Amino acid sequence: MRRIRLFFKIRSFIPFVISFFCSREVAFRKKIAYLLLFIGYFLIPFDVIPDWLAGIGILDDLAVLMLILQRMIKTAPDTLKHKYGI
């Protein structure tokens, strides 16, 4: 349920993600790890549910995106969380 609410706020998290990657408070290896997770998942052609299944195939991509974003928020410094009201 938490990820569903997070999905509807995805546009408001774009500035948070940019600040996360630009912040000096976040360790460089965390930035690289999350960047590799984002890029790696979308470059790997294997999906749990194939994308050619109309509408349903995109759900696994969104679920993984929400999972990565949720973990990113959890590991973000408190200053970033407070700045964006997370």
TrEMBL record:
Primary localization class, coarse: membrane
Q: Which UniProt keywords apply?
A: Membrane, Transmembrane, Transmembrane helix
Subcellular location(s): the record lists: Endomembrane system
Q: Where is the DUF1232 domain?
A: 32-67
Could you tell me which Pfam families the record lists for this protein?
Answer: DUF1232 (PF06803)
Please list every transmembrane segment annotated in the UniProt record, as residue ranges.
Answer: 32-49
- What Gene Ontology cellular component terms go with this record? endomembrane system
Topology term for the membrane: Multi-pass membrane protein
Q: What is this protein called?
A: DUF1232 domain-containing protein
Can you name the source organism?
Answer: Anoxybacteroides amylolyticum
